[in-house]
Amino acid sequence: xxxxxxxxxxxxxxxxxxxxxxxxxxxxxxxxxxxxxxxxxxxxxxxxxxxxxxxxxxxxxxxxxxxxxxxxxxxxxxxxxxxxxxxxxxxxxxxxxxxxxxxxxxxxxxxxxxxxxxxxxxxxxxxxxxxxxxxxxxxxxxxxxxxxxxxxxxxxxxxxxxxxxxxxxxxxxxxxxxxxxxxxxxxxxxx
Length: 191
Known about the structure:
The chain is mostly beta strands and 191 residues long. The strands form four sheets. Strands 1-3-6-9-12-15-18-20-21 form a nine-stranded mixed beta sheet, with no helix packed on it. It has a five-stranded parallel beta sheet with strand order 5-8-11-14-17, with no helix packed on it. 2% of the residues lie in helices and 26% in strands.
């Protein structure tokens, strides 16, 4: 699937023939872009990413390395995804807090930052202007309206803090405090 240039060792990105990547230079080595995905010129996608079917990436978006974006996700201008972020199927980003079709608010975009290692569950909604902390976990179907701390597990509408998640994705026991858990659980590679 990935073409490797034998002399240089460069791993070219794979772009499905039914995908639309307006500027292939903006796609990192080893990245896979699947059918019906559209990456606009002016977006940056890092190395070893996976952009599933029907993913849309608007100009001005920055996506780090090893990011996995599942099917049917649109990443709009103003959104930054750091390294190792996981976006579940059909998760939603917004970029204007009070949109109206008849009012031009292109200069009123709110920035959204999803920090390293965070997971966004299927069908969750990330309202613009928030920061999702490192290794945080947003449960499927949740609606995030405010910042999420590092390693936090949030769920519901609106999303509320319900515990901590380990770097490897295990839920912390209920009595765990953040300072103990952030070093990893017994299943972590880092432990």
